[in-house]
Amino acid sequence: MAKIDKRALEQALAGNPLARRIVILEETESTNLAAKALAAQGAPDGTLVLAYRQTAGRGRRGRAWECEAGACACMSVLLRPSFPMELAPRITPAAALGVCHALRVYGAEAFIKWPNDAYVGGKKISGILSELGTLGKDYFIVCGIGINVLQRSFAGPLAQTATSLLLETGRTVALEQVIIAILAALTPLFAGCGNDAAYAAMMEEYRRLSCTLGRAVTLTGPGGVYSGIAEDFDALGRLLLRTEDGALITMQAGDVSLRNRDN
After folding, report:
1. Complete domains list, the chain, with CATH
2. Which of 36, 107, 224, 231 is the most exposed, fewest CB within 10 Å of its CB?
């Protein structure tokens, strides 16, 4: 099982506002749950939680996130933003863009499948789960990211839908190097979430790397199933869907199937 070199990580991330405190766990239910528990204890903005193994890793809508121990970068960042809570949804698109930037550093041509997945070669390589919490009058965000890094194969149905950095590039990259690249990419993007101009510029890049935009999609959300064209994203990163009857609706979240494509 690959181990993270904590000293190398701390040296490389010295001064990074997303890694003011680094917590590395051998095993946890999920790094998001661990980060939320630390938030309740008063952990500072920029607390980074890493784990070699998650026993109950989660994706959107409570789905399990499976990861081979030591082969996946499992991480959560605790954020205590200065911008209004209404802008908190911007964090997820920013995280997805940052993950794609980091993966491309290592030669993986990553694209964003709205709202929070990174895909390479039509297969999922990363998932993101951002969660909002409150403590009194204050709020915090825990942004959880899982990236398949060192897996050589996937079992069962995942063999058709999942991939890893190793499988896509043939490169064996240390987990801490991937984590460093992700945090370096996320730092300016997260900082821009409270600035409308910076966020608008970020969303232009998000659109360029989207494998959802302009596609015919079927979206399953809390209100039902919708079909149409993924027309655009709004100022919070929500999907603007042009339905088959011509209406334009705003979707906060949901499961997207890209028609005529296996992802």
Report:
1. 6-208 (3.30.930.10), 216-258 (2.30.30.100)
2. 224
